[in-house]
Design a protein that fits this description.
The chain is of the alpha/beta class. The protein has eight helices and twelve strands. Helix 2 runs parallel beside helix 3 and helix 6 crosses helix 8.
Length: 225
């Protein structure tokens, strides 16, 4: 069972997070202030931490920067009502691994935690990604499927790379906007749908990996049997 530490001063939010974590097989401990949260994080025994940005005693930035100074590398998902890009950058530069703004969907939170828990993507050759018969060379920016070259446009390549790094896991539309397009908001366009459609036409063949749509949530790259 994956052990999570929830550092959140709002009891309603904390209990909602804990309920969702437990529904997905996590066990969770809760700290309702920064001082207790920092002490519990330093004590260890957790595989992931959700950390509110604004807390009594110590704020989230102080907590995560202290953990990193102590060489504690437990993945930290920062959660905050502060949605400005500058605030997100501050959180990440302080040592946070990802940043989620309130209000947020629990599906989004779980998806981001799963990405953090998986850690760096498997990379057999230092610069290659492989999933089924699909191969990506990150240095040459080349893609092959069944040893045949697949020609992708730059954004299609970034999209495929991100899906492969998270193969088998849900990636939400918000995650794609942030990681592929650099948007920290939903621009209200169908840009993701268009690029997913183009990518599907280029990589989906009999027995090859396929991009599944999870309605209302996002996408998953899976292998066909």
């Amino acid at each position: 069972m994956i052990r999570a530490l929830v550092i959140e001063d709002d009891e309603v939010t904390a209990q909602a997070i804990i309920a969702e974590l437990e529904a997905h097989g996590f066990s969770a401990q809760w700290a309702d202030n920064g001082r207790a949260g920092l002490a519990m994080a330093i004590a260890g025994g957790h595989e992931v931490i959700t950390l509110d940005r604004m807390l009594p005693d110590f704020d989230g930035l102080t907590i995560v920067s202290t953990l990193r100074q102590l060489a504690i590398q437990t993945p930290v998902l920062m959660i905050s009502a502060l949605s400005d890009v500058d605030e997100r950058v501050r959180g990440l530069r302080s040592g946070g691994d990802d940043y989620l703004t309130k209000p947020f969907s629990m599906v989004e939170m779980i998806a981001r935690l799963e990405v953090l828990l998986r850690g760096p993507s498997p990379d057999n050759h230092g610069h290659c990604l492989e999933f089924g018969r699909l191969h990506v060379n990150l240095i040459e920016h080349s893609v092959t499927l069944y040893e045949e070259a697949v020609v992708l446009l730059p954004t299609e390549f970034k999209l495929l790379t991100y899906l492969m790094r998270n193969a088998g896991q849900l990636v939400t539309r918000t995650m794609l906007f942030q990681e592929v397009w650099g948007y920290h908001f939903d621009p209200g366009t169908n840009i993701i749908d268009v690029h997913i459609g183009r990518l599907r036409k280029k990589i989906e063949r009999s027995g090859a990996p396929t991009i599944q749509t999870i309605r209302g949530s996002g996408y998953v790259l899976v292998e066909k049997n």
